[in-house]
Amino acid sequence: EIVMTQSPATLSLSPGERATVSCRASQSVGSNLAWYHQKSGQSPRLLIYGASTRATGIPARFSGSGSGTEFTLTFSSLQSEDFGDYYCQQYNDWPVTFGGGTKVQIK
Amino acid sequence: EVLVVESGGGLVQPGGSLRLSCAASGFTFNTYVMNWVRQAAGKGPEWVSGISGSGRRTFYADSVKGRFTISRDNSKEMVYLQMDGVRDDDTAVYYCAKDTRIGAPGWFDPWGQGTLVTVSS
Q: Tell me, what's the pLDDT at B102?
């Protein structure tokens, strides 16, 4: 199974700041990488698929990049509703696997 | 609107059984793989099982293989997860999630609101 490793585990930021979350795959997954945002008590919500394509309704301040084994999720300017947990997922092969998550919290 | 809604969670004793259900609507149900994903408290999501649109192909995580069974009823637009021989580490919120690609694993969208399964004596 492909192991997904996210870093950092926690980010403490102020609204308006720029932020970057990294995700590394134990073997190449091409561009078969998605990102999700999960607020406390809610289910995960799709942000990005195909490593860089924003899902419907996702604002342009979110962007994804990377291919192969190294991926990045970038927030150009954090808004209050952006705080919570972020997870990457590879879907290159079964079993699909998720990263351990990055918690983005208010500084 | 594409919707998936889970039900059937609850308290179950170790070694016991539970059946989760997922009602889907708003899309051509028999076209897509449907999945169960679980999330233990404070942990990341863990994919549990998937079933092809026809129901002929099923996929399982090693952690549940031989204990859980996924099935679907396309006439009712329902997906099920039969959980047998449950263990303490099966305690989690279980989500139903629609796959997005045909013929290959994809990203999941949408996810249901989740149903809590607690394994405890």
A: 84
